[in-house]
Design brief:
Strand content: 15-25%
Shape: globular
Largest sheet: 3 strands, parallel
Radius of gyration: 14 Å
Oligomer: single chain
Number of strands: 3
Number of helices: 3
Order of helices and strands: EHEHEH
Length: 109
């Protein structure tokens, strides 16, 4: 077996805000500034340098970040595989805007 000695996946929290208040989760109660594009640029460059291949944009609810499409596009421009962990409530509203920017997206009924 070949062991990898660097991180492969990063769960990148873009906000702790959430449009659901699930009984099993309190993340939405935390103070939450939004990650800026400039800050993400530096972070993604550093992650790439560390050997990260996959960036999962998450939160709270990442679709509440006003620039989530720009963050996904930025990561893709750095040849990173992108995923988006969402509760799916806002996905129908943003599906077209996100098309092609994330490898995996929730399935709609």
């Amino acid at each position: 077996m070949r062991l990898i000695h660097h991180p492969v996946l990063c769960n990148y929290y873009v906000t702790y805000r959430c449009n659901a208040s699930c009984s099993f989760c309190d993340i939405w109660e935390r103070p939450s500034p939004y990650v800026t594009i400039a800050h993400a640029e530096r972070n993604l460059t550093d992650l790439k340098r560390l050997g990260v291949k996959v960036v999962d944009f998450t939160g709270g609810e990442p679709l509440l970040h006003r620039q989530i499409d720009g963050l996904l596009a930025l990561a893709k421009s750095k040849k990173l595989i992108t995923t988006l962990t969402t509760n799916g409530l806002l996905y129908p509203k943003y599906a077209e805007k996100l098309r092609g920017k994330s490898r995996y997206a929730p399935l709609l009924p």
